[in-house]
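Catalogue entry: protein
Contents: sequence, fold tokens
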Amino acid sequence: MSGQRSVRLLLLFVSLIGFARAQRDLATLTGTVTDPSGAVIGAAKVTITELSTGLAYSVTTDATGVYVRPALKPSTYTVQVEAPGFKTAVQRDVLLTARDRVGVNITLQVGETSQSVEVAAQAPLLQTENTNIGGDLSSRSVSELPLGGQRKVAFLARLAVGVVADENGAAGALGGGFSAGGVPSMGTSNYLLNGVDNNQNNIDYQGLAAYVVTLPPDAIGEIRILTNGYNAEYGRGGGGVMEVTLKSGTNQLHGVAYEFLQNDHLNTNTWDANKAGSSKGSWKQNQFGVSVGGPIIKNRTFFFANYEGLRFNSFGAAVPGTFGTSTLYTIPTPAMVKGDFSSELGNVIGTDPLGNPVRQGMIYDFNSTRNNPSGSGLVRDPFLNNTIPPELCTQLGSRAPGPLG
């Protein structure tokens, strides 16, 4: 009995996920139903069916022949219209993207309801329902277009007309930041995830990206880029809008497993390492994951899940993407903490103005600074055995915090 209760609770939770979906990334389908003479038809039944899930939504035209069905998730739909005394009209392959308001006008032909007229939808030559300017990228485009280093989907924004990449050195450039319509990018681009604010509020962009949540490309169903003419509901900034919509399950079980391997075999050495005579550092990155979606109850309840992992190993190599470049740090030994740097003394590399030998890594006492008795300039004495006395370590620690303090 307790097992059945757990299953019911699980199904309830999965069902509530659909209701919790943000409304701002959903689309609206509208249109007018008329007869061959152009007269409107009221009380016509309009059935809107999503092809991938089989979910159907019914509305009725009003007295002016108009129907409106909001809150449709981005997908492909079939629109079927029925009215007494007219043939059933079916319009297939109606594509809705995030926040679309698409008009599909239907003309019914006189005849029996059992008869039907089918029309394959075509891309409209002119968008008449809103003034949005920008572009849309499908799930296939997002997952198959090259994204480089860390596969950041924000880099795809520049495929839209009027969008350019952030200038080199900008805070969000390594995360795919962009500028739309000539508006400066920092703090003006608006990033949305399923209609929810996904903007990095720290203007310095922690993580080197202007957005907070980074999604694997294989978890994304659609990306919409708006550059101008969008509604006031988007708010926040005066620049471009990048709206990402997650995938959802369908009536068919689908999945994908992937790995992207990058290493140093074909990489050149860095300029500074070449100058120092150092060999090329090691670098290896594995970016891997799995996505799966399908039905729990056909035509009713669905699931989608994605996992992505990143394994990164680098030593002294230049790293693309948001990792910047690796840096070597010197950590003091216990002897160094006590002021003993004798281990750093190397070979003799020359002489000082007093004629004394100078060894590599030699440390000089700044308290012994004095005028050169045999000429111009200043001279100092090295510490004996390259060891700083404890009392001087205390002085150094009080002047500036550091490992010697």
User: Anything to note?
Assistant: The chain has five helices and 23 strands. The chain has a mean pLDDT of 80. The helical segments are 2-20, 139-144, 271-276, 334-337, 390-399.
